[in-house]
């Protein structure tokens, strides 16, 4: 490739979406030289990470952003969830998870991805040792004992070679950088789509999130600003095509029929978008000089709103491992952020949390998405058990808040420097 020049960095992050940008900012206090290579500008409508979706941020993600000093800006554009109401269409009764019961102010916060993108990118511009190359796409990767060499195509068609001690793939579930590193991934299609958008409920949603399991698939309503609700409705591929073809009134009627009237009548439904859903799992998390974080390591079904939060725990763990290795180095200039022992510690640390969340979300999809009679019986017992067996609700809430297991410093709200 006719590359025009070569720049050297300690760490290159492939993908400047929600996880790549967060990782670069989390690493910034360590004083390393960093580059983020992002293919699509944040302001482009095609930006796949910072789009119009809303993301429920868990407590461990909140703590991470607090430790990074970004939380005041993020919370200013977010809405707290104080209670989650879980119900099953066609059955009486419901379960709930309550922030007060868990002894916390909020179970999580809802932020629009675009809003999060604005905060992260403005913070990136303030870091001197961090270069954001955008629009720029990674086309090839070569790895030797000392370096990863990254071939980048800039938006103007020119090429550049970057070399680094560690290359982090944060380029999403369909990661090409993961393949360039030689890591395979398993992908299984759920045959479902998430239809997302916003609507206005008649009654105050009042900091309550709703999850409702229906014959067509689970539907979540999240509180966002101005008493609007962001919805995520998981349906089959053919239902998704039909729903997207409906006009606003017919789509509202279809949603109302599934959700019922506990929030009164719905109105003012906005633009809808569909996301095809699949589970993806990388076969390994590291290669010499390379590591995976976020969706490039694990792409989850959004039924439990955990994909980004799980990725933020990857971010926190990788930062911990790098910071510890830097502290242990006798002479900082010889510190190697791509050291094999450091990467192996990260991979071991993340294995359990990732496998558990993949299992929980995949199990929920099968349990709550199935129309079969045994699954219906099981899910009723499951929901009943969830509400009456002492301790189960607390354990579930802890997992969903991202506070179970051994947590890295950032996930506990402790700055790494
Ligand atoms: C409908 C829906 C709702 C969701 N809701 C929640 C929720 O409430 N809570 C939650 O925790 N999670 C949620 N998720 C999951 C969450 O959105 C993802 O886990 C998160 O976006 C992953 O971020 P990422 O940065 O790893 O990947 P991505 O968001 O896919 O970003 C990857 C970035 O890499 C860039 N890129 C790709 N290839 C290259 C290349 N070769 N060179 C340079 N750049 C490249 C892309 O342009 C992109 O910006 C939801 C997902 C869906 C689909």
Can you walk through the features of this model?
The protein is of the alpha+beta class. The protein has a single domain (6-187, 278-412), classed as FAD/NAD(P)-binding domain (3-Layer(bba) Sandwich), CATH 3.50.50. The chain contains 11 helices and 20 strands. Strand 18 and strand 19 form a beta hairpin. Helix 1 runs parallel beside helix 4 (113-125), helix 1 (18-27) runs parallel beside helix 8 and helix 8 runs antiparallel to helix 9 (340-369). The longest helix is centred in the last third of the chain and has 30 residues, at 340-369. It is globular, with a radius of gyration of 22 Å. The model has no long low-confidence stretch (mean pLDDT 90). Bound molecules: flavin-adenine dinucleotide. Flavin-adenine dinucleotide binds next to helix 1, strand 3, strand 9, helix 5 and strand 12.
């Amino acid at each position: 490739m006719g590359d025009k020049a070569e720049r050297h960095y300690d760490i290159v992050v492939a993908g400047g979406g929600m996880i790549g940008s967060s990782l670069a900012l989390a690493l910034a206090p360590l004083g390393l030289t960093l580059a983020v290579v992002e293919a699509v500008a944040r302001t482009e409508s095609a930006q796949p990470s910072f789009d119009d979706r809303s993301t429920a941020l868990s407590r461990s993600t909140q703590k991470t952003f607090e430790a990074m000093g970004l939380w005041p800006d993020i919370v200013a554009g977010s809405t707290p969830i104080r209670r989650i109401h879980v119900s099953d269409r066609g059955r009486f009764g419901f379960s709930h998870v309550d922030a007060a019961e868990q002894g916390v102010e909020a179970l999580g916060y809802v932020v629009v991805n675009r809003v999060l993108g604005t905060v992260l990118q403005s913070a990136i511009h303030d870091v001197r040792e961090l270069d954001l190359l955008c629009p720029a796409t990674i086309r090839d990767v070569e790895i030797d004992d000392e370096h990863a060499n990254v071939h980048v195509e800039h938006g103007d068609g020119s090429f550049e070679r970057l070399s680094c001690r560690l290359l982090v793939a944060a380029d999403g579930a369909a990661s090409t950088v993961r393949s360039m590193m030689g890591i395979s991934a398993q992908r299984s299609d759920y045959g479902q789509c998430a239809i997302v958008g916003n609507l206005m409920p008649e009654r105050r949603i009042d900091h309550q999130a709703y999850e409702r399991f229906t014959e067509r698939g689970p539907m979540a309503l999240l509180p966002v600003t101005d008493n609007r609700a962001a919805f995520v409705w998981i349906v089959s591929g053919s239902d998704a095509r039909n729903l997207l073809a409906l006009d606003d009134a017919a789509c509202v009627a279809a949603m109302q029929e599934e959700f019922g009237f506990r929030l009164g009548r719905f109105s003012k439904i906005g633009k809808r978008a569909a996301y095809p859903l699949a589970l993806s799992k990388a076969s390994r998390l590291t290669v010499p000089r390379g590591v995976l974080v976020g969706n490039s390591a694990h792409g989850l079904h959004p039924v439990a709103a955990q994909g980004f939060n799980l990725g933020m725990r990857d971010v926190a763990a990788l930062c911990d491992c790098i910071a510890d290795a830097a502290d242990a180095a006798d002479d900082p200039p010889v510190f190697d952020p791509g050291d094999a022992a450091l990467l192996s510690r990260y991979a071991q640390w993340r294995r359990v949390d990732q496998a558990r969340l993949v299992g929980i979300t995949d199990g929920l999809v099968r349990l709550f998405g199935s129309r079969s009679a045994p699954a219906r019986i099981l899910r009723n017992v499951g929901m009943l058990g969830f509400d009456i067996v002492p301790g189960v609700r607390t354990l579930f809430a802890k997992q969903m808040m991202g506070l179970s297991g051994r947590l890295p410093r950032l996930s506990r709200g402790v700055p790494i420097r």
